[in-house]
Amino acid sequence: MDSVFSNVDRAPEDPILGVTVAYNNDPSPSKLNLGVGAYRTEEGKPLVLDVVRRAEQQLVNDPSRVKEYIPIAGLADFNKLSAKLILGADSPAIQESRVATIQCLSGTGSLRVGAEFLKKHYHQSVIFIPKPTWGNHPKVFNLAGLSVEYYRYYDPATRGLDFQGLLEDLGAAPSGAIVLLHACAHNPTGVDPTPEQWEQIRQLIRSKSLLPFFDSAYQGFASGSLDTDAHSVRTFVADGGECLIAQSYAKNMGLYGERVGALSIVCKSADVASKVESQVKLVVRPMYSSPPIHGASIVATILKSSDMYNDWTIELKGMADRIISMRQQLFEALQAKGTPGDWSHIIKQIGMFTFTGLNKEQVAFMTKEYHIYMTSDGRISMAGLSTKTVPHLVDAIHAAVTRVV
Amino acid sequence: MAMMARTIRNSASRRTMMMSRPIFGLRSMSSWWKNVEPAPKDPILGVTEAFLADPSPDKVNVGVGAYRDDNGKPVVLDCVREAERRIAGTSFMEYLPMGGSVKMVEETLKLAYGDNSEFIKDKRIAAVQSLSGTGACRLFADFQTRFNPGSQIYIPVPTWSNHHNIWRDAQVPQKTYHYYHPETKGLDFKGLMDDVKNAPEGSFFLLHACAHNPTGVDPTEEQWREISQLFKAKNHFAFFDMAYQGFASGDPARDAKSIRIFLEDGHHIGISQSYAKNMGLYGQRVGCLSVLCENEKQAVTVKSQLQQLARPMYSNPPLHGAQIVSTILGDPELKSLWLKEVKIMADRIIGMRTTLRESLEKLGSPLSWEHVTKQIGMFCYSGLTPEQVDRLTSEYHIYMTRNGRISMAGVTTGNVGYLANAIHEVTKSS
Fold first, then answer.
1. Other C-beta atoms within 10 Å of B308: how many?
2. What does the alpha-carbon distance between residue A126 and residue A149 come to, in Å, rounded to a whole number?
3. What CA–CA distance (Å, rounded) separates B176 from B174?
4. pLDDT under 70 in chain B at which residues?
5. What is the pLDDT of residue A1?
6. Which residue of A has its CA nearest to B274?
7. Is it true that A15-47+319-403 and A69-304 share their CATH fold?
């Protein structure tokens, strides 16, 4: 019998995840994976935080733990703690019960559920996303039925923020349009607005009644401080306005594969928040019924114990500091080698990624000749670098910029 | 967008740049969501919520389909506990591929298609790890909408209520086919076959592989063969939702019989598999979506497209539940322990069916309760009316969904007498 799907074409490899696939297939001993954004230690190994291992043991040793369905909106204590983490324990929005928080499948799931909710219940179906942005963002919003527009963000000339362009583009957006904002450590560029710039952005957004949708995937991971990295979100919430926030624990707790995150919708009143939550549940039920229990249980265990929470902040700062140190080392090594160009953006950018400014051909060259794996937009994951591998990368970059234009 | 911005640069940007005053009237702006209505409670999950809120010591929850032991307690299988002990402290928690755990999917396909399935050997099955059964159905529905736009899904009456939500949210139009016969409390086989025959050629049908939810009514093997033949004649696509393999009869191979018949007959089917009930992994959200293709190349293609649907939904599926499944199914001892434990669960339910029926008959009920033992799986479609169900809840603190569906997994030797008595009381005058 003929297949009803014989018309289906093969999909292209995901550009980001495809990098790791290619890396895995490479037999070279000097290969370096600077593709997907997963943290690596100085030894190039994945890291499970000590505090996570402790939480794991606690869970597995508790005979009263069952695996029943958790509520559609997820674990209640996980949700409360997640809202506190991003908004601050003293947030009036929390105290006034104005925040609907729903456990979702990491950042992706939070974005998708939020977008589907907006498609159903919000009067505008256009979302403005920065150019560039994480490759999966446009797909998430498109599949939710939103139309995607871009606002200027990255300036290739300065390898910094195109602030003027950003203000113009958001200023020209239709009233009520949704705006995706990277809370900190912009992916893929590592370029963040300064606090002063954030304040201007906030004023513009509020004056045009635009709806902010924050993607917070790196809280604590960027600067090493959970509070500093939440600053942009908190100033928006402090003005009393509404917003959506997608939180991920993939990087800052190293829980990548467990798919742990939360969608928070900050509303004007408790009554509205409660209705909103009930409607978000209707989005979740036909998608996967209820979220997975394991990762959220680990997070809740850690966040509710002050000892474990403190230990977590120390380990988190350790990861952030190692990345900042890698930036410093790479920059200094490029200076020392005399590689042409201004590489100061490496230490000005923040978070897991550096937007090197290398072009597609240069990237392809580095992959072919030096077995360096990175996305073709020139983004490198600093987390994949170590003191030992910096020299190899520097050689590759140097060769690429001098031999490939 | 940028172009448009440039053309109005002069006026808009200057106004923007000059704006350093505080925003007037922000706090007086009303909510974007003030028109959002409170959503109705999920009919199934709302039952448990109501049960939990009831302070009565006599309360009985025969609502949601989660297994309970004879003490009414949720169960974590021993094989699962052991698997968790082995996993804790060893996993790196890295991202799974978009298609999920390859090992878990391999083992899962063996359960559905057979250990020695030629389709597995020939790599003709496009399969991805999914978020339990719901996630598998949703991925398939999204796939159907993208690659067979304009196609509809035929859904049995009745069915698990969330099936309607899933295909609706995937924007696949729905039609229904006859399934349950209220008079016999069994299968409306003639109605089903008529609907299959009258559906346009090449229609998509949702079939419950075994232990139909909510009725517990399954076609016999002979009836499945006839359904398969008619499907062949009409060139229909069969999508099987198999949420209870092993849980229905206690024998996974037997519970997959409908699927095996269709495979023998040459159908290219789709299957949603769930480990929520048969491994007790409910909250872990572990399942698998598979689509049998013409050849390996097509399977690779279809899988790549399924991944494209998963990526913007959750990127990649959760690790822990998949690790539990692989650990158990990949270890002969643990697998054998699992099969034993599944049989124990199935047998307890079968035993409770017998006891409930006998209790009602002993009470002298004027009605026939034969269907209680003829139906199979977690649920019994009792035939109780919504009004009778409401009485059970308000007078006896017995919680079930208003369609009269009783979750047999919630029935115990401790409460079966009370349940039988209550049912008798509300039905004896009918």
1. 18
2. 7
3. 7
4. 1-30, 32, 34
5. 55
6. A288
7. no
- Tell me, what's the pLDDT at B2? 43
Percent over 70 (pLDDT), chain A: 99
Instruction: Give the Cα separation of A372 and A23 in Å (integer).
Output: 8
Q: Which fold has domain A69-304?
A: Aspartate Aminotransferase; domain 2 (3.40.640)
Q: Which CATH class is domain B96-330?
A: alpha beta
A360 at the B interface (CB within 8 A)?
no
Res B301: pLDDT = 93
Q: Same CATH topology for B43-75+345-428 and B96-330? A: no
Q: A72 vs B42: CB contact, 8 Å cut-off?
A: yes
pLDDT attached to residue B66? 87
Helix (H) or strand (E) holding B61: strand B60-61
Q: Do B19 and A204 touch (CB under 8 A)?
A: yes
- Residues B276, A203: C-beta atoms closer than 8 Å: no
Q: Are B265 and B258 in contact (CB under 8 A)?
A: no
pLDDT of residue A64: 83
pLDDT digits (tens, 9 = 90+) for A85-110: 999 999 999 999 999 999 999 999 99
- The full set of domain ranges for chain B reads 43-75+345-428, 96-330
Task: Tell if the CB–CB gap between A46 and B321 is shorter than 8 Å.
Answer: no
Rounded mean pLDDT of A41-69? Answer: 90
Lowest mean pLDDT, pick from A60-74, A225-239, A368-382, B155-169: A60-74
Quote the pTM value. Answer: 0.91
Work out how many CB contacts closer than 8 A connect A with B.
Answer: 292
Class of domain A15-47+319-403: alpha beta
pLDDT at residue A83 is higher than 80: yes
In the prediction, which pLDDT does B30 show? 67
From A340's Cα to the closest Cα of chain B, the distance in A is: 32
What is the distance between the alpha carbons of residues B131 and A208, in angstroms, rounded to a whole number? 39
**Is residue A124 classed as helix, strand or coil in its secondary structure?**
coil
Name the A residues in 109-148 with CB < 8 Å from any B CB: 109, 112, 116, 121-123, 128, 136, 139-140, 142-143
Question: Would you state the pLDDT for residue A19?
Answer: 87
- pLDDT score at A13: 73
Contact A293 B280 (CB under 8 A): no
Residue in A59, A254, A279 nearest the CB of B36: A279
Answer whether A368 touches B (CB < 8 Å): no
The domain segmentation of chain A, as residue ranges, is: 15-47+319-403, 69-304
Q: How far is CA B264 from CA A2, B260, B261, in A?
A: 15, 6, 5
Supply the pLDDT for residue A2.
62
Residues of B noted as catalytic: 160, 241, 277
pLDDT at position B260 is 98
Q: Which residue on chain A is closest to B86 by alpha carbon?
A: A60
pLDDT of residue B8: 38
DSSP string, A200-265: HHHHHHHHTT-EEEEEES-TTTSSS-HHHHTHHHHHHHHTT--EEEEEE-TTTS--GGG--EEEEE
Q: Which chain A residues touch B313 with a CB distance below 8 Å?
A: 105, 108-109, 112, 140, 143, 287
d(CA A131, CA A166): 9
CATH code of the domain made up of B43-75+345-428: 3.90.1150.10
Determine the pLDDT at residue B60: 95
Strands (E), B124-257: 125-130, 153-157, 174-178, 180-181, 186-187, 204-208, 237-242
Please state whether beta strands B237-242 and B204-208 pair in parallel, antiparallel, or not at all (unpaired). parallel
Tell me which residues of A are annotated as active site.
134, 215, 251
pLDDT mean over A226-238: 97
ipTM of the shown complex: 0.91
For an interface test with A, the pick among B315, B327, B345, B378 (most A C-beta atoms closer than 10 Å) comes out as: B315
- Asked if the Cβ–Cβ distance from A105 to B267 is below 8 Å, we say no
